[in-house]
Amino acid sequence: MKFMKLGTRPDTFYTEQATRTVASDLPVDLVIKIDDFTYLLHKSPLLSKCGLLQRLCSDSRESESVSIELHDLPGGADAFELCAKFCYGISINISAHNIVSALCSAKFLQMNDSTEKGNFVGKLEAFFSSCILEGWKDSIVTLQTTDMLPEWPENLGITRKCIDSIVEKVLTPPSQVRWSYTYTRPGYTQKKHHSVPKDWWTEDVCDLNIDLFRCIIMAIRSTYVLPPQLIGEALHVYAYKMLPGITKLKSSGTSASSQAEESKKNRKILETIVSMIPADRGSVSVGFLLRLLSISSHVSVSPVTKTELIKRASIQFDEATVRDLLYDQNFYDIELVLAVSESFLKLWKRMFSGAVDNRNFLRSIRNVGKLIDCYLQVVARDDNMPVSKFVALAETVPAIGRLEHDDLYQAINFYLKVHPDLSKADKKRLCQILDCQRLSPEVRAHAVKNDLLPLRTVVQLLYFEQDKSSKVTTTSHKLQKPHELVKKTPATRDSLGKQTSDQEKEEVLTRGTSLNESREKGRHKTKRSDGKLALELKRKMVIRGDSEEKRTEKGSGVKEEGNLDPKKTIQRVRSNKSEHGREKGR
């Protein structure tokens, strides 16, 4: 960073009993009071360069001591001391850190060339134009310091000139960037990279307060030079730098007044960032939108801002990952995920119905279905997760959004393990969202042996297995009849051109008859295998029914709803077993 040195005399200012004075043989004849500071100085060096002090002391005699109060001087005591030292010829350094306060104070004291040639204001303005505005970090730091003086920098044009300088450098092609900048992305070092990254400017700009940052971003957007993704990257960097994480928001131990002030500040930052997000899809990631949405619940943003975030997140919801739905790795908000999922479904239905090519829309809804099921597997491990919220989120995915129910089964299985005391009604409600016909053979085999599932679900799985086996067996036995084979066989000709003889036809018929006999034997075997499968089904139901009866309360006469009554089925199976044993004994 650049600086300007003025004056040659050593610094002779010192503090004595809450006053600041300068070592001199001359008697003090000028007293300046600024806030809580008192300066004991001399008229001669100050009045010659300060037009304001000349006017205020014009009515006093030359030998008379004058006391002046300058409580409204911009920059306060520090800025005034720079001006006073310049008047005494004491060495001072001007840089981006103090030029704003020095220039505003010098303007206030009327230290311009009309008062004395080569005065303080002229030197400061020349340094500001030739050095500060030409540098990248000098412009950033100078703009930062304008925040300490609300009106003066704006009225003097300092703020606008700094913003224009910064925007001009941001729009410079990366290949022409010659100044130093801050870039601390993981895995990036300037020594290993000869080319300047496109977002080289984002980290330095994010040091500004939210109002100045907004001025920079809106000025850049108005030029339409940079793509929306670069604007989104700057917003992303600023949010991660200025907004606290969920962990900090939840565990804040400060006082109520401090929390309210911090919440107000964070709310302003978040709402301003949301208002600057480009409308283009993909300008910011869905993970970034979901993070802003999670923070919004803790800083009480306006309903308009929250609705806008839900809408923007739902547009890109099919691009999200489970990590995006988990905030700070430990916290999650199923209500927000449910809101975004429902908004996505409404948008998807509206666009899907009018689409010519539905392949992309099918892919998006299935991506969301996979996302929701994997997310449910994570939140199912929470002891405090109610069944109603779990089921509500699972039901936001339409049937077309799940090709298989394997991931949903895993989520239900995790939930049942973590919640062993779940009532029968809640278990039934939970398992109603599961489609047994959409489970893979491996998962179905696991589910049949899963003691956590309600008996009704297991019975459905077993019946589905039997029905599927019967259909496969029936399909495999649909062969052609022998006489149809003979009718459909065309008369062939041998190499001599003769038609097939009657003897050859009889051989074909004989082969068909033997094929029919082998099919009849296969049917008898199939019937025996079906009988074995039914018996095995009954045995499993008996075992499962016994274990279910042990878990129920004594004297309970409550029956499962539906067409199948487990107790009656178990009794029927037991009576069949006893009859089968008596027949075997005979």
Automatic annotation (TrEMBL):
Domain of life from the UniProt record: Eukaryota
UniProtKB keywords: Ubl conjugation pathway
Pathway: Protein modification; protein ubiquitination
Basic and acidic residues compositional bias, start-end: 528-568, 576-586
Gene3D superfamilies: Potassium Channel Kv1.1, Chain A
Family of the protein in this entry: Belongs to the NPH3 family.
Name assigned to this protein: Putative SKP1/BTB/POZ domain, NPH3 domain-containing protein
